Amino acid sequence: METILDILAVVILIVEVILLYKLRQNRFQEKLTGGVRAMVLVAIILFPVLAVMLGNYHVFVTTKESTACQSCHVMAPMANDMMFDTKSQTLAARHYQNGWIAEHECYSCHADYGFQGTMKAKLDGYRHLMRYVTKTYEEPIRYRGEFNSMNCYGCHEGSRTFEAVEEHQPVVENLKSDDASISCLNCHGRAHPEPSRRTPGHEDYKWLSNPKNKEISVKDANEVKEYISNLAVSKK
Amino acid sequence: MRKVFIEAMLVIIGLAISIPYIINPGPILMFLFVFVAQPCIAVAVMLVLWEVYKDLTKSNLL
Amino acid sequence: MSNKKDDLNLSRRDFLKLTGGTVAVGGAALSGWGLTELIVDEGPVKSWHKSVCRYCGTGCGVMLGMNKDKLVRVRGDQEAHNKGVICIKGSMLDKVMKSPERLKVPKIKKNGKLVESTWEEAMELMTKKFKESLEKSGPTSIGFYGSGQLLIEESYTANKLFKAGFKSNNVDGNPRLCMASAAVGYTQTFGKDEPPGAYEDIDHAETFFLIGSNAYECHPPLWERIMLRKKANPNVKIIVVDPRKTKTADHADVYVPVLPGKDMLLLNSMCCVIAELGLLDEEFISKYVSFNDGKKGISIEEYKNFLKDYRPEKVADELGITPRQIREVAYQFASSKATMSLWTMGINQRVQGVFLNNTLNSLHLITGQICKPGATPLSLTGQSNACGGVRDTGSLAHLLPNGRLIAKEQHRNEMEELWKVPKGTIAPKPGRHALAMFDGMVTGDVETALIMCSNPAQSLPNNRYYREGMEKAFLVVAEIFEDTETAKFADILLPAALYIEKEGVYGQTERRYQIIDKLREPVGQARSDFDILVDFANRMGQGNLITYKTPTECWDEYRIISKSSKYDFSGITRERLRKERGIQWPCPTEDHPGTVRRYIKGDPFADKHIDANHKVHFYGKPDGKAVVFARPYVPGKEDVSKEKPLFLTTGRVVSQWHTGTMTYRVPELHRSAGPGRFVFHPSDAGPHGLKKGDRIEVESSRGKMEGIVDISRDHETPGVVFAAFYDQKFLVNNVVSDDHDPISKEPDYKVTAISVKKLS
């Protein structure tokens, strides 16, 4: 899909350059003749609208990709931890590196269910974008409001490993009650690196906040990979 | 062409942002796309359509 | 030219349009942003506060979400040692704080019924009764029964008031039922109480030796840490020794199902195998270890001779396992890169509790599995402040603050000087330990007592017997709920503040001190136990002794006192506690980071003895050497027979904490745990004709009780019946034996022989 978009973009670019050049050649004509008129329709309406549509594909669809979240530098600590720190024990890293979530790793956990959830996630994304481009944020960034544990339950409900743990019963009861107060993270730990590590000045901050990380941060990668794959069979 | 000079300028600005954004999406370009490119192109399209409408009414085609 | 002019005109008009457009678009963008900022669902929390969980000895750091004076959310503190992991009980603390059943006004028993009263009347009556007892029958006729859940300032104040103020050493508490054997074990072996290692060792250990610990259910965040360690390193092995096949045992690499009451044989047998295989760490032993048979020093040869009686082939049958299992476990323990032992009540609550603790420590000493990352013995604590509040403040009948002993004149004199009381004030004879205190109530020797933050009427073994005493004595009970078993015996019932309704310091398993800040006012007229004690002291004419009025002033006094001991935590100021996520003592200065591992480099008291040749210094002992005791197995009185063919063992379940005073009130946890019951292995239920839900009568040497049957193939083992003690309608302690360790005086809750009869 990305390649098709790229090709289309280049095509639009080339056609527009030609058309606008042609229009410039006709700039002294007082009246728009038939051929020029067609050129105007294509150059000013058809292709720009096409470009807007392609752009909006990114706005609404590509933003679900984890790479889209990662493209804001402020998200680098979450992304680096999740994707490249093979020793990390955060929930995000364990889910990502074990491939427990097939696609849209950030979005899958961070968007609530249904259309309302999608809308909420998009509005949140909009807020994040505005904060980011206007630099009205402070590191370490913090999750505003409450993470919805039902997002965890959406995938884990009914799974053998989840149902086998009888300690989950009071949790589910609490989550489904009107007075829900529990969080899955309470027993299962951090989703992302703790705020102190994401604070400028911390020894881990430099690596975590580096947007160019691509490498595994430990020496014996195989050993660590093995452990991460072992995580998948953590509980009977 | 003079008639569509502004429209052309708006389209150039819009595309100058949109094309890089389509090829290489990022937060800044996304912001510019949503709040600059898109409105520019929208305005250009509306102006042209307005011209077309005027043209058509003048020719008593509408 | 005209064209250009046209251009300009056009541009000006369009410039205006453009400006308008830009403003419109910009305005839309900004207002849209503003809207998204406004509609963020912030949840009910208005402010977050760092605190510590109220419940167990893990001492998890928590973040408390408050909405004005209401606790609405509890989350794990990601910056604390538990890395954001807490358990299901702590997660639902908000429900306990919300409970409408709290005791809100003082009550006095009149004509056998508790009637509402005022603080003035209640405190005056309390003062009168204590004064009467003191005048009529002397200091030994009064007592204080405290708790491993009181804040450090509270236990410290009670201890000081009773021992230095009233000259009564009858100060004890529920940690006697829980930690006493571990405390005595450490003190005998290392010369100092409290563990040498820390939770951090979990991240470095290669072998976990869990004995008498169901960490999966009782210390879930620590268990999670162990599991993460195991997943991070495929070489990690978990050995679980337990008569029950607990959920912890489910995850073990090696599970050793010993019979109840016999594991002293296993530990000695492991030592024997280790010696036979030549796995003793000779260098470590020669430098840092001495041997003792309990009366005098012995040689290593004599120790090895002692062990010969415990060859696996000799003891395996009695243990109910095979010699091969013993050899496997012993080899793994000694040969692993780093072995960490973890234990709780399965070891402490035993008639041989101290010996078991000694021998666990010995296993580490003879193999050199100590004083290096990942290698350490670590006794897990049951209560949130048994270590800091009771062991460290010396609020037990035989102790004085910071590891001092009442029996030692020098220690008494030191404390008299620090407390600025005349020499000879502190009575030289240790007071009554927990069971003896309630026994004293039965015999009439203890007439008046103050019970705080504890529920002995449900938690004491041989419960009916000690209840007689509670009935006879004049009891002042500070409680958070009116309907607890102990509250029923109160002559004066004082409403106590709970958790974040008061301020103070908690100290847990790994010598870590953490602060709980006051975040709301107590319900009704409730007062903190600290305020009650200070008020009581003043009314008793001890205003000169208890001079401080706030927990902070008390902390500063105690902190400075600690300076003259090897516990020195004078660097742990209130300000640091508020800023940092708990600090581990020793911590002698305000810029000291605290001590993760004791007796090695980094421990301020060991540092000056450490050089290239000496990496370890056990400064609790005059010669710097820890003691390996040759401790024999002595069979307990409770053993199965034809008449009593089953072992009863008690414990906790994951969703309930201790006597359930708090957790059983949380609907989700209540339903999850279900009613108290006897859980059988099917192979025992069958021959007795028992099905799930049947009513039975259980009889032990201490009496009879009725209960319902549950059956578990997965978690029980043949010959062992399990019962938890959280349900006040199911007082299993009525039949539990009160045999206790002769040294630590800790009762044996784990081994009671019973017979079972089905009721129609």
Automatic annotation (TrEMBL), chain A:
Q: Which InterPro entries match?
A: Cytochrome_c-type_ET (IPR051174), Multihaem_cyt_sf (IPR036280), NapC/NirT_cyt_c_N (IPR005126), NapC/NirT_cytc_sf (IPR038266)
Q: Where is the NapC/NirT cytochrome c N-terminal domain?
A: 39-195
Look up the record and report any one GO term of the cellular component aspect. cell envelope
Which cell locations does it reside in?
Cell envelope
Keywords in alphabetical order, please: Electron transport, Heme, Iron, Membrane, Metal-binding, Transmembrane, Transmembrane helix, Transport
Span-the-membrane segments of this chain are 6-23, 35-60
What's a single GO MF annotation on this record?
metal ion binding
Q: Under which name does UniProt file this protein?
A: NapC/NirT cytochrome c N-terminal domain-containing protein
Q: What is the native source organism of this protein?
A: Flammeovirga pacifica
TrEMBL record, chain B:
Top-rank taxon: Bacteria
Q: Which UniProt keywords apply?
A: Membrane, Transmembrane, Transmembrane helix
Q: Which residues cross the membrane?
A: 5-23, 29-50
Name under which the protein is recorded? Uncharacterized protein
Q: What is the organism field in this record?
A: Flammeovirga pacifica
